[in-house]
Design brief:
Layout lengths: L1 H8 L4 H19 L8 H18 L1 H8 L2 H18 L7 H5 L1 H12 L4 H27 L3 H4 L5 H4 L10 H21 L3 H20 L3 H14 L8 H17 L3 H10 L4 H15 L9 H17 L9 H4 L12 H29 L4 H20 L5 H37 L1
């Protein structure tokens, strides 16, 4: 019925809307493609321009209302600032950052349309490809257990032989943590029908398998910790609320300090040596031992403080990122393992305040459109994103697309579907009672 309505509504503009959706699918699939760093970015930019043209011609008023919204104008401020820095010889203009706001724009544009068919179609295509990447990554990790970590190398010449459109590297793994927590919340909060629950359950298990096999300690820690957090949504109100929150607080006092024992137990009962080391490392992080010894966490702390010390030398505008090309060992000035710390060093308070303002404003704007269940879940995922960019590099297409397009689209679509189903049930029971 919805597809028929979509076709009827758009019959006169089908020559615009079909290529519009095709271009949108191209951009979204490119954004999560693990091999896209090897492709020609000019092609990507060209398709983005085509999409904008088709979107503008098909829905002129809604396109410009979306584009000229203050939050969107703030988002476009980031590439503008980078262009100013580049013109001043302070930074190298990051071409892909110019295109990053397109994910915000696409979400709000398709959200503004009265018919949800296009949003459903794009969400289905994106999630389907995401699942295929997970399947391909599992296969690749069985052949080479280190492939996801090796793909973290920033040198394209070294990673090109390993790269594949179906093999996820660190960008995919750390976007997968957010997607996996979202799936946990969808199953836990929205209680989909049996076959839908089975489908989401398979997606969840596949995501967890990829994260565990990829050997990223922080990813393993984050996905388990934030999945537990996502399932701790406070109830509506009343005396039961106080009792439940108090019980959860008391349980947390007992469980959290002993959470490391779970990871130690898994490590002791795992035959794979690499997985044993990773689970032991996560246990060490939770226990507070091994933070500076026997783990790369100690090295990371040094890298974070290095960036912060560099920022203090130029607190307002930073030292710029051109320094990466002029120094033999850039890690002596910029740690390179924390977006929060590194952006302070690169772009100073001016750049960092704008960067974080864009993220927070877009989150707050989306959060208002979600139902009560979706709000807490989306907050958990947003906090997870911030935890990840504090300890890792993480401002890239897969993470932003998952955070600001895929997850909000799923939460809105599932929330509306659940509300519609509940309304139908109410009507059915009211008729039955009469």
């Amino acid at each position: 019925m919805e597809q028929s309505a979509y076709i009827c509504e758009n019959r006169g503009y089908s020559f615009l809307r079909v290529p519009r959706e095709f271009c949108a699918a191209f951009v979204l699939l490119w954004g999560i493609n693990p091999e896209s760093f090897l492709y020609n970015w000019a092609l990507y930019a060209g398709v983005v321009v085509l999409w904008a043209g088709f979107a503008m011609m098909s829905e002129w008023k809604k396109f410009w209302q979306t584009t000229l919204h203050p939050a969107m104008l703030l988002s476009f401020g980031w590439p503008v600032l980078m262009a100013v820095y580049a013109a001043a010889g302070h930074a190298e203009f990051p071409f892909h950052h110019l295109l990053m706001p397109i994910f915000y724009l696409m979400f709000w544009y398709y959200f503004s349309l009265d018919n949800r068919f296009a949003m459903k179609l794009l969400s289905f295509l994106t999630v389907s490809y995401y699942i295929l990447i997970n399947l391909g990554t599992v296969y690749a990790l069985r052949q080479n257990p280190n492939v996801s970590r090796l793909l973290a190398n920033g040198n394209p010449e070294l990673t090109a032989p390993l790269a594949s459109p179906f093999t996820g590297g660190y960008q995919h793994i750390y976007s997968l943590t957010m997607f996996t927590v979202a799936v946990v919340g969808i199953i836990w909060y929205y209680r989909p029908k049996l076959f839908e629950t089975i489908g989401w359950g398979i997606v969840l298990l596949l995501g967890l398998l990829v994260i565990v096999m990829s050997n990223y300690s922080f990813a393993i820690l984050f996905v388990f910790a934030f999945s537990i957090l996502a399932m701790c949504r406070p109830p509506k109100s009343g005396g039961v609320t106080t009792a439940v929150i108090l019980f959860c607080f008391l349980a947390a006092l007992v469980i959290v300090p002993n959470l490391y024992r779970i990871f130690y137990f898994i490590a002791e009962n795992t035959d794979n040596l690499k997985l044993q080391l990773r689970f032991m490392e996560v246990g060490n992080l939770l226990k507070g031992t091994g933070i500076t010894q026997g783990s790369d966490a100690g090295t990371r702390v040094v890298l974070y403080t290095t960036s912060l010390k560099t920022w203090l030398t130029a607190p307002l505008f930073g030292v710029g990122d051109l320094i990466l090309k002029t120094m033999e060992n850039p890690r002596e000035l910029i740690g390179g393992h924390s977006i929060v710390c590194d952006y302070l060093a690169y772009y100073g308070l001016v750049g960092s305040l704008l960067f974080h303002s864009i993220l927070i404003v877009n989150f707050a704007r989306i959060e208002k459109r979600l139902d009560r269940r979706g709000r807490f879940l989306y907050l958990s995922i947003f906090v997870l994103y911030y935890a990840q960019i504090t300890v890792n590099a993480g401002y890239n297409e897969p993470l932003i697309e998952i955070l600001f397009f895929v997850v909000p689209s799923l939460l809105i679509l599932i929330g509306e579907h659940t509300a519609s189903r509940q309304e139908q049930n109410k009507e059915f029971y009211s008729k039955y009672i009469r």
